[in-house]
Specification:
With about 140 residues, the protein is α+β, with helices and mostly antiparallel strands. It has 4 helices and 6 strands. Strands 1-4-5-6 form a 4-stranded mixed beta sheet. The longest helix is centred in the C-terminal third of the chain and has 16 residues, at about 100-115. The relative contact order is 0.16.
């Protein structure tokens, strides 16, 4: 067990399977670490690993490339210390302006607003150079 693994076990009560997540990128892992270790966060779940109808958290959106209705699975769901919720997406800097990413974000913002949640999309470089919860 490494120091980092032991440190994460200290926060296991704030998530599930905190030691077995398979992140798609270093910025996703960094986002998770920033959220799970921050006192502003009660719970954080890596929902992005549950895709293709493996989980209940999906958002329908219109894909402008295929012109079809598809499902989008945000990367994280966080319950904050003030009992508010955040839906969180992590994207590479080169993908932020992508038409499909924008379509997913628009649909997610609608759902989040109707559910009294915040939708946040983080660029990977921002996560790797700052603590987004302290900004």
């Amino acid at each position: 067990v490494t120091n980092k693994d032991a440190n994460l076990q200290k926060y296991a009560h704030k998530s599930f399977h905190a030691d077995t997540y398979c992140f798609d990128s270093r910025p996703e892992k960094e986002c998770f670490l920033q959220y799970i270790t921050n006192s502003k966060v009660k719970e954080v779940y890596f929902t992005g690993m549950f895709t293709a109808n493996q989980g209940d958290l999906s958002i329908q959106y219109y894909d402008p490339e295929t012109r079809r209705i598809r499902h989008y699975y945000p990367d994280f769901l966080a319950k904050m210390a003030d009992d508010s919720y955040q839906l969180i997406e992590v994207k590479g800097d080169n993908k932020i302006e992508d038409a499909v990413v924008k379509a997913k974000a628009e649909a997610a913002k609608e759902i989040a607003t109707e559910s009294n949640m915040d939708y946040i999309i983080y660029a990977g470089s921002k996560l790797m150079t700052s603590n987004v919860l302290d900004d």
